[in-house]
Specification:
Layout lengths: L1 H14 L3 E2 L11 E2 L4 H44 L3 H9 L41 H8 L3 H4 L5 H35 L15 H13 L5 H30 L3 H6 L2 H10 L2 H30 L2 H41 L2
Antiparallel strand pairs: 1-2
Length: about 350
C-alpha cells in the first residue's frame, strides 16, 4: 500500500506539470503536454482504486481476523476463570501430571493400569490434519532453530559460517554473470562487437575461457558449492549434536505421566526423525533462500537492462511457480503425515 501511494504521488507530480507524453517508439520524444491527458487521468484513477482496495483488505483483516483472535483470547480467559476447583482437585487426585515433571507421584490403580491411559488414544496416535498456520507463523518459528545453526560456543565455527555465507553471495553473482557472458560471446560471434581491423569476425577465446571458468565454479556441484559443502560439515555436526542434546534433555524432563502414556519405540522413532531438522536447516539456508534471492535479482536485472514487460513476465512466472510449489507441498503434506503416522505406529508396536 505504501508503494502504491508513492507511485500515485509520483505520477500526479509528473502529470500535473509540463511533461512529454510517451508514445509508441518515442518514450521520451512525445508531444509536450501542460496538463493531464485522458489516459493519464485513467491511470491515476486506477492507482487510486488499487489504494482503496488495499485499505479495504486491511479493514477486512482487522474485522474478521484480528477481532476474532481477541475474542478467542477473551473466551479462553473467561473459561479459565470459571473452571471448577473441584474438577482440578479430581485431576490432581487421579495423578494427572501438568507436564512440568510433577507427575512422578502418580498413583497406580489395582490391576497395574494407569488411570490417565483409560479411554485415551494409543501412544503412537498423531494429529491426522495439517495444523492451520500461516507462512508468517512458520517464518517466525524458524528463529527457534537459529541457536542450533549459529555456533555461539565456538568462535572458529562462527568464522566458517560467515565464509559459507560469503560463498553463497558469490554464487548468486556467478549465476547472474553466466547468462550475461553467453550474451557477450554471442554478440562477438555475430559480428556486432567482435570484428578485427580487417572486418573479419574473430574467435572470442578469452570470453569462452571465462565462460568455462564460470561454469566450472557455478552451482552446488561446482567448485564453490563443493568448498561450501566441505566447510559446512563441522557446522552440520555441531547442529546435529546440539539438537540431539536438546531433544535428550527435553524427553528426560517430561513427567512420568507422559512416559506411561507413550511407548518406548514411538519415543525413539520421534527422536530419530528429529535428526532430519538438521537437513531441513541446511536446505532452507542454502537452497530455498538463495533461490528466492535469485528470482528477485533476475526480476531487477530484466527491469534495468531490458524493459518493464520482461520483468513483468518473470514476475508472473515466478509467482505461479512459487504458488504451485506451495500447493503441491500442501497436497503432499497429508500423504506424508499418513506415512509418518503409519511408520510410528509400526515402531510403537514392535
Amino acid at each position: 500500500m505504501v508503494l502504491e501511494i508513492i507511485l500515485l504521488a509520483a505520477s500526479l507530480s509528473l502529470y500535473t506539470h509540463t511533461h512529454r507524453e510517451p508514445g509508441v517508439g518515442k518514450p521520451r520524444d512525445g508531444p509536450l503536454r501542460f496538463r493531464m491527458t485522458e489516459w493519464e487521468i485513467i491511470e491515476a484513477m486506477i492507482g487510486l482504486v488499487r489504494i482503496l482496495l488495499l485499505f479495504s483488505l486491511i479493514g477486512f483483516y482487522w474485522v474478521f481476523v484480528s477481532r476474532q483472535c481477541v475474542k478467542k483470547q477473551r473466551d479462553m480467559q473467561n473459561l479459565s476463570e470459571t473452571t471448577s476447583l473441584l474438577a482440578a482437585q479430581e485431576h490432581a487426585e487421579n495423578g494427572i501430571a501438568n507436564g512440568n515433571g510433577n507427575g512422578y507421584g502418580s498413583t497406580m490403580p489395582v490391576g497395574g493400569k494407569h488411570s490417565h491411559t483409560e479411554g485415551t488414544p494409543a501412544g503412537w496416535s498423531r494429529p491426522v490434519g495439517v495444523p492451520s498456520r500461516s507462512w508468517w507463523e512458520y517464518i517466525k518459528g524458524y528463529h527457534v532453530f537459529f541457536p542450533y545453526l549459529w555456533p555461539s560456543k565456538d568462535r572458529r565455527l562462527q568464522i566458517v559460517v560467515i565464509m559459507c555465507f560469503i560463498i553463497v553471495v558469490i554464487q548468486r553473482g556467478v549465476n547472474l554473470w553466466v547468462p550475461y557472458q553467453v550474451g557477450v560471446i554471442t554478440n562477438e560471434l555475430s559480428g556486432e562487437s567482435g570484428r578485427d581491423d580487417g572486418g573479419k569476425i574473430r574467435m572470442p577465446w578469452g570470453g569462452i575461457c571465462f565462460y568455462i571458468f564460470l561454469r566450472f565454479i557455478q552451482g552446488n556441484n561446482g567448485v564453490l558449492g563443493a568448498v561450501r559443502s566441505t566447510l559446512w560439515i563441522p557446522i552440520g555436526q555441531y547442529s546435529y549434536r546440539e539438537l540431539s542434546v536438546a531433544a535428550f534433555e527435553h524427553v528426560h524432563s517430561l513427567s512420568l505421566d507422559f512416559h506411561l502414556g507413550k511407548k518406548t519405540g514411538e519415543v525413539l522413532s520421534a527422536l530419530g526423525k528429529g535428526s532430519s531438522i538438521n537437513t531441513f536447516l541446511e536446505q532452507v539456508t542454502f537452497q530455498v533462500v538463495p533461490m528466492l534471492v535469485d528470482l528477485c535479482v533476475a526480476i531487477g536485472y530484466f527491469l534495468v537492462a531490458y524493459d518493464a514487460y520482461y520483468a513483468l513476465v518473470i514476475s508472473v512466472v515466478t509467482f505461479w511457480y512459487i504458488y504451485l510449489t506451495i500447493r503441491m507441498a500442501q497436497w503432499r503434506a497429508e500423504i506424508r503425515r499418513k506415512m509418518v503416522n503409519a511408520d510410528r505406529e509400526e515402531d510403537a508396536v514392535k
